[in-house]
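Same chain as my last thread, 330 residues:
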Amino acid sequence: MTALVVGGAIWGVRSFSASDSATTSFTVNDVPAGTYPQYVALNPWNRELYVTTGYDIRVINSDRTALDPFIAVPSGSKDIAFDTVAKTVWTHNNTRDNAPDSHVVTVIDTATRQATRTIRFQRPVIALGIDSELRRAFVVNRPDDQTQTPSNESWVSVVDTDTFDVISEYTIDLAGYGVDIDPATHIALIRGWMGTLVFSTESPGTLSAPRAVKASNSSSVNVALDKQQQRAYVYTDTDMVTYDTLSGDEISRSAMDIDISDMAVSREGMLWTVDSESDSITVYDPATWAPITSIDVGDQPISIATDPDTGLFFTSNNAGQSVSVIEPAG
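reply #2:
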């Protein structure tokens, strides 16, 4: 296989109509989410929302009306990755100052909401992702001093999610800061400063070395996967690039000068982008990259997640200390 290389009670309700008359309008509900929420992710088997705050994980129940008791984790929690086989959630703890907790991944039982295991790494953890079917986790480790401009070097630790053993480690010429997993093609895209890199699989349970790296002219690369169309969208501050995730070929490149802190693909194949500066979401049609609509959300959104079954979208709003639940109103 050829593989590609390449964030209590309802507070308020707002309604917005799309600029394109063919697009439905949206209703936005704001739900309290604790102190300075960072990252939002959907639990795929019970539809709960998990939100990292840097101090703990807050859980918003499946009907989006209440904030359940928090899950205690070490300070600095950021990414969330779900193991759909073991029914666990993994998070890493990075305070960027090389504190002991920065080297730790915490594994949590979602039934009891208790930490069941910690995995300690030699270097601080900056990102993680899980391929549940292949029983592998990808953990990105960076040099100790993350307060400085990063050198073009990081490490990817591949972890067996059944035994929690590190089975391999790769040094990469990229300051990695994010992991995106495509469960259909089993590629792991490692995004970082000035580029992205891929790990792929030759067969179930067998990992290959990194295939290649595609360079970028940007220090803030964003990636979103269309798992139905087998496409990856990579934004580099100046260009939106579309790749075929099976062949690794570049399909198109469009010049776009927009602010994006995170992005995700809807079940209809539209690209939703988060703009923290304007407190809004802009939806684009990848066929033309024309904007379809803009939707106001909470104060300073930094992360986005979607529920492919319901079509709902969610943003974590850092300054607003909330999660916006965005629902088609028709």
